[in-house]
Design goal:
It is a single chain. With 267 residues, the protein is α/β, with parallel strands linked by helices. The protein has one domain: Rossmann fold. 38% of the residues lie in helices and 21% in strands. Strands 1, 2, 3, 4, 5, 6, 7 and 8 form an eight-stranded mixed β-sheet that branches. Helix 7 links the parallel strand 4 and strand 5. Helix 1 runs parallel beside helix 6 and helix 7 crosses helix 10. The two termini are 27 Å apart.
Length: 267
């Protein structure tokens, strides 16, 4: 993918998620069909969606109202085994849901940095942090390929259904490796392709923003992570995720091509 094509993808994704953030603020997120989103204007429905992704009831009630937008394809916090005092970065932090959950785990002596390239999402997350008095969370505007984070400064990186949206996944893993401390770890939920994607799916801009067209195979992900320098790579597809993936684009049979996976590795 050349530079212009990559920028076109980023602009398409940024525009889609800007609309998701604005629609969610207005109480009508599912009016936007171009996101990995089963989101509704009903808070209870969003909670049901997140429960299907592996979050507990206590998770859902421990974050600011409006942070849970129903976005994602798993629960990276459940993989991360976060410890008090750790520094965590959330790639593609959206409204802050996973960042706030991580902040609860690392406590006042720890810190969570959420990075998102969509200004509307950053504003939403910062407002959520302000109204709930979170002092150990910071949200930074930036691209996950070029993280606004210092070298060798982070204990854990989490991410929820975001890396698939990047047009340069190798650079995402390279930069993730750069900011992690020695022994630092990745704990990611994302989608992977379970079979070769047909051209009509690969070339569908809406399905790219819906976390489908940009999905990589398990082998490709392993190769990119190894190239970046990661060790102890573990990628575990979750076949039961097809039940909620089919809701992202009803009638398109995307669940035949992609599944959610737990992705872990260490530096």
């Amino acid at each position: 993918m050349d530079i212009k094509q990559a920028d076109d993808v980023r602009n398409q994704v940024r525009d889609s998620y800007s609309k998701v953030a604005e629609a969610n603020n207005d109480g009508d997120c599912c009016g936007v069909a171009t996101s990995c989103c089963g989101v509704s204007d009903d808070e209870k429905i969003n909670q049901l969606i997140s429960t299907r992704l592996g979050y507990s009831e206590s998770d859902l009630t421990s974050v600011p109202e409006g942070a849970d937008m129903g976005l994602g394809c798993g629960n990276p916090k459940a993989l991360a085994a976060l410890q008090e005092g750790e520094i965590v970065v959330d790639l593609g932090s959206g409204g802050g849901f996973d960042a706030f959950l991580a902040a609860n785990e690392v406590g006042k002596t720890g810190k969570v940095i959420g990075v998102d390239m969509t200004p509307e999402m950053i504003t939403k997350a910062r407002n959520n942090a302000l109204k709930a008095n979170y002092e150990n969370v910071e949200f930074r505007l930036g691209e996950i390929e070029h993280l606004p984070v210092a070298d060798n400064s982070v204990d854990t990186i989490i991410s929820n259904c975001v890396i698939n949206l990047s047009p340069d996944k190798q650079q995402v893993f390279n930069d993730a490796y750069r900011i992690l401390k020695s022994g630092g770890r990745l704990a990611i939920s994302d989608v992977v392709s379970s079979t070769e994607l047909p051209d009509e799916i690969k070339n569908d801009n809406q399905l790219y923003s819906a976390c489908v067209s940009g999905a990589s195979s398990i082998n490709n992900l392993q190769e990119m992570m190894q190239e970046a320098g990661f060790k102890n790579i573990k990628i575990e597809p979750k076949d039961d995720s097809r039940d909620f993936i089919k809701d992202w684009a009803p009638g398109s049979n995307i669940e035949d091509y992609v599944v959610s996976a737990n992705i872990q590795a260490t530096k």
